[in-house]
Each structure stands twice: as C-alpha cells, then as structure tokens.
Specification:
D-amino Acid Aminotransferase, Chain A, domain 1; Aldehyde Oxidoreductase, domain 3; three-stranded antiparallel β-sheet; globular
C-alpha cells in the first residue's frame, strides 16, 4: 500500500517523506488507510538516530532523514537504499483529563530502563508530555507488550 501511494505521490510531483495512518482490523488483519500526511513524519529523527548508530559512513545506504533531504533537493536516489532498522520503539504520553503531569521521579525511573525521555512543557489537552524512545521494542505482538513496555506502563500509572 505504501509503495503504491508513494508512486502516485511521486507522479504528482511530491518529493520527500510522507506518513500513512492506518488501522488494522483485528479479526481479518486487513489494513485500512485513514490519512496521508504529506510531510516528514515525527518519527523520522528517531529512526535516523537508530540508523546512524548502525553505519559509520553513507555509501549505498542512507538514513531516512538524509534520503528525505536529498529527495527534496531533487537528487536521484535510485542507487541507494535505506539503512534497515532492526529494533527500536517510540511512544508518547499525552496530556489527558487524568494525566496532566509526569513527576521527575517517574521520568528518572523510565530513563533507568535505558530509555531516552524527552519531557515537554505544554499543558493543554492532547499535548505531548513525554516522548519515550528505546533501542528495543515495547510491543511483542498485537495487544502484547514486552517487559520494558510493561515496566513503562507500570511507572506511568
């Protein structure tokens, strides 16, 4: 689906990254497109950080962010591929009616799980409070979290 949409966007003159929002029907595994975000996805910086940790020089493989910049400049990227990302996860804690702040104690506990935690100051409904990043996955399978995912959930509750 992503390749087909990307081909259409390229044909229409789009350059660079875009994001897709999907939902997957649990009973059938069928994916449904909700939205095309014609901009660099928020995960690009984190994904490129994971990629840059796995390669010392840009030869025939590029990080997602470098590929985005080169595409926006109109460069031919047909000889390149993206650096694969084997593992890594990023989750957000947004401000809700029940969660309006996260204590420094909880942030430190999450950091002690070998996670990068970015705290935000904006305090309005739906705003990001925390961005939690890890070199490991938080989800094992559909509706099944890893130990690290469970530990983070326990800390935030």
């Amino acid at each position: 689906m992503a390749v087909e949409i990307g081909t259409h966007m390229k044909h229409d003159g789009w350059k660079g990254l875009f994001g897709l929002d999907l939902v997957v029907e649990a009973s059938t595994g069928m994916a449904y497109l909700i939205e095309i975000n014609a901009r660099q996805p928020a995960s690009t910086t984190f994904e490129s950080w994971l990629q840059d940790r796995s390669v010392a020089t840009y030869t025939s493989e590029l990080s997602t962010f470098v590929a985005h910049l080169r595409a926006c400049l109109g460069e031919d990227l047909s000889e390149y591929s993206l650096i694969p990302v084997e593992h890594g996860a990023q989750i957000l804690q947004r401000m809700t009616k029940d969660i309006t702040d996260v204590s420094q104690e909880k942030i430190s506990a999450i950091r002690n799980l070998d996670c990068n935690v970015i705290a935000y100051d904006e305090r309005k409904p739906g705003a990001e409070l925390l961005r939690i990043q890890s070199k490991e996955s938080f989800i094992q399978n559909h509706n099944v979290v890893t130990k690290k995912g469970s530990d983070i959930t326990d800390i935030l509750q």
